[in-house]
Amino acid sequence: MTFAMALHAARLGVTVDEPSHLLSSYLYWRGADTLPPRDMPPLLKISAGWAPHLLGLPVPPTLGQRGHRRTEWDAASDMMTRMKWGAIAKVFFLTRLPMLVFPLLATGLLWWWARQLFGPACAMLLAAALALEPTARGHSSILKNDIASMFAYLLFWYRAWRYWNAPATGSAVALGGALLLAVISKLSMLFLLGVAPLIVLAKSLSLKEDRRRAILTGLCCVLLIPYLGTLAAYQFETRLLDADELSRLWAHAAVPKWFVALAEVFRVIPVASGMWEGCLALFSSNHEAVPVYLMGQVLPEGSLFYFPIALAVKVPGALQFLIVLGVALSLLYLRKGKFGQGWAFWLIPGFLYIALASLSRFQLGVRLVLPALPFGLMLCGVSLQYLLTHRRGQAFAALLFCWLFYRSVEIYPRGITYFNVWAGGADNGLHYLADSNLDWGQGLPDLADFVRKRGIHKLRLSYFGFDIPYRYFPEGELEVVAPPWDDSAAEGKYLRPEPGYYAVSATLLPGHYFAPKYRNYYQVFRSLKPIAKPGHSIYVYRIDRKFQ
């Protein structure tokens, strides 16, 4: 697994989010991580910032100082144009390497927890399933916090399970530490700050002795450790909120009233400035209507069914069989009382995370619900435990894992683009989803290989992402066709291609990121069959006539 991810990290093109994360990690290690929107918590920056800190980045030395008005995305785009082409591959590879520790930790923790629940054989199979799952492995090699948060979410619920079974002081401290790791891995994990005290209180009420001491110790651990640790992770850049600011937030439609009510405490104790600004930016972006592409349609405000549909077409069929069987068996075992205490800590969290994500308007890909994956595999553990007790069941499990292994190897190293057999595979992915499910700007190396093998001497490229196309193609052989991000970039309401070869990023074709008047900008290409789909994420067309 490590070898496969390292090779993937070396070859993968730069994805959309990575330049801004690279820049913020660099600024974090310089103590100047102040550029808005500040919506990326510090765990990723702590892990990956050493590489750009040592190698340096071509940014102004004053960047990040207070009063600087540039956004992180704008500064990152400018940084990419200034970087030497050879340095781009080196610095991104080195910053991706630390990210590999998180899928390894998640795999090890899944094995350890499953071993206690289902036995050694099931635990090893579940660890193998996580290592082979194409989408998780595809996103493991990216400078992004999705897999880190997957590990942190799993660790939190494991420590909650341990605390529930043995509510000692050490377990409470470990639960507080796991909560801290979750909070600094992803802002969406902040809801766990409310879950952890409820777990402590619920367990304390069931105790017959030392109830008051258990409540006090547990609450101190799950409140103080995350609070003090967060201040440290944000480099003790703190502030006190004033009444005027909170009064304005009460009238702000994007910010939930419960959040403002809880924020009153930060008039008395300091809050980490980065986390406060990041939360406000997250609420603002979630409040805006963001068009989503789903099942061949552009949905102006997303859909409650986005993530269930994404999971239906992205999760491997072999695992889906085991999950469905696991749900049925779990319901049966719960009815008969066969599960021991603490079953809710590994049965519910996956469904909880998917449900909360579905209420959000931030629907850019199945990667956003990857923290639920290990808990889906726990349901597979229920199935495997049952199947391995029967000879025919063992044969069926072996068949499913052979199928999973084949599909995983077949799609490597393009796990980001994986779609299961029900969806028709990666080549059929755009019929269902776009964005980070299929094309997140990573496909330029595959396109360059195709162009070189095909002997194409002139290519027009319409690209979605922040990678530098010219570092993959000889001078004079590439012409960039700008997407219609604004009126100045558009060549009319529709793009009318001249004869020649064109390559269009899959995420651009539906037009959901453009203003409504440009939604059909690429309609000519949507009406044609591509001659190739290099890496499954960029579609190549040959135009033989001029379109009017």
Short key terms for the protein model shown above:
single chain, 548 residues, mainly alpha, 4 domains, 4-stranded mixed sheet, two-stranded antiparallel ribbon, globular
Fold and architecture overview:
The protein contains 24 helices and eight strands. It is mostly helical. The protein has four domains: 99 residues, no CATH class; 168 residues, no CATH class; 118 residues, no CATH class; 101 residues, no CATH class. The strands form three sheets. The chain has a four-stranded mixed beta sheet, with helices on one face. It has a two-stranded antiparallel sheet with strand order 1-2. Helix 2 packs across helix 5, helix 8 packs across helix 21 and helix 11 packs antiparallel against helix 12. The longest helix has 23 residues. The chain is globular. The model has no long low-confidence stretch (mean pLDDT 93).
